[in-house]
Amino acid sequence: MPAPPPPPAELDGELEQGGWIRGVLPPGAVSATFGGEPIAVDNRRREFFIGLDRDTARSAELVLEGSDGQTRKQTLSIAPRDWQIERVNVAKGTGGGSEAWWKKREPEWLAIRDARAKETGAEGWRQDFIWPVTGRISGRFGRQRIYRGEPGSYHSGIDIAPGNGVPFVAPADGTVVLARTGFSLEGGIIIIDHGAGLNSAFIHLSRLSVSEGDKVEQGQLLGNVGASGRATGPHLHWSLMWRDARLDPLLFLPPMP
């Protein structure tokens, strides 16, 4: 008689669009996939992390595999979000730049892409995140404009406006994988790998207090809020990604103190 499939995984988190899941593999399971892609599992604690993109479907499948090849499919219900959508009666811009602008922009884009793909073994993904800074929320995750029926790109993070030059801190442990100034759009930028495919980016900074390769602890000073790059005023733009999924930082946080 064949062995039964593994029991369901233990899951915790925010199972909604832009949310996240922390889970533990059950006894007998040796690997897992989500949306058909393998998930990195901590061999010691058997824990894993999954991010849910802003446009994740209302259901997703977590597949657990046992040592004997038996599988269990665990269907997850993902709550939809009511995104802030603005419809405008103007044509969508091309968003293009001059050849000289793109010559400068391409290496910046590649540096960001490569930094977000780095895995440093950080374990901040296990922590309950804290606010990097407190202040007025001037921009929310997922906000989008529709130009005569054509969707524009949505806001990929949250904007916090505490005032120019205000210091901000690491929301969780991690390793600094990018720390640069002078980027065309982002201005001063810091990207932190929190491990398990999860990373934070902070942009428009006026000052950087860390360097690439630094290991940072939750609550450690990272830099100062600014309006560098393409910004209409001083604020901290904070975005979170898991692999290619864009996540809502507010779903990682307690109420603002």
TrEMBL record:
InterPro entries: Cell_wall_metabolism_enzyme, Dup_hybrid_motif, M23ase_b-sheet_dom. GO terms for molecular function: metalloendopeptidase activity. Coiled coil: none annotated. Pfam families: Peptidase_M23. Signal peptide: none annotated. It comes from the Bacteria. Residues 154-249 form the M23ase beta-sheet core domain. Gene3D superfamilies: Glucose Permease (Domain IIA). This is M23 family metallopeptidase. It comes from Qipengyuania aquimaris. The lineage of its organism: Bacteria, Pseudomonadati, Pseudomonadota, Alphaproteobacteria, Sphingomonadales.
